[in-house]
Amino acid sequence: MGRQEKVTAEEIKESLESGQHTKSELSTIHGVCKATISNKVRRLRQDGDAIIHNQNGMLLVDKKMLIADAEVSEILRGYLNWLLRLYQCITYCATPTKPLLPTLKKVLKEKLTKDERKELAIDTARFRRVLDYMEIEEETD
Q: For 42-64, how does the pLDDT look when each residue is reduced to its tens digit (9 = 90+)?
């Protein structure tokens, strides 16, 4: 006979449905260690729940969150604008007389404002959610 679980995977899922949380936050909420949270999240992922994470914590992605055309369009617009600016910078750096990475870093710093770099990070994270969801959906099909 095994021990009674302090927290179930479903309870973790319910917490993630309310918004994005870090492992630390979830472990505090449920009174368990971070390893327990990791195990429950792993079990949820194995059961087909789309849980992604970034520097801000974990998020349960539901299909409605990503299917909205306006949101996806906005994400792609931001990402593609950034991508075009990036290619312009890389083209500028692609001369054989300059080392690529230091020059690229310098040009990105000169060409993108702090707000644009922050927007790039946010848009990239959003785009990753879309790609992660697509991968999970393909695995379940």
A: 999 888 888 888 777 888 877 66
Q: What CATH number labels 9-60?
A: 1.10.10
DSSP label at residue 21: B
Q: Provide the 3-class DSSP secondary structure of residue 35.
A: helix
Q: How far apart are CA 38 and CA 18, in angstroms?
A: 18
SS (H, E, C) 73-140: HHHHHHHHHHHHHHHHHHHHHCCCCCCHHHHHHHHHHHHCCHHHHHHHHHHHHHHHHHHHHHHHHHHH
The 3-state DSSP class for residue 51 equals strand
Task: Tell me the pLDDT tens digit for each residue of 17-33.
Answer: 888 888 999 999 999 99
Amino acid at 50: A
Q: For 74-87, what is each residue's pLDDT tens digit?
A: 777 887 888 888 77
Residues of the chain with CATH 1.10.10: 9-60
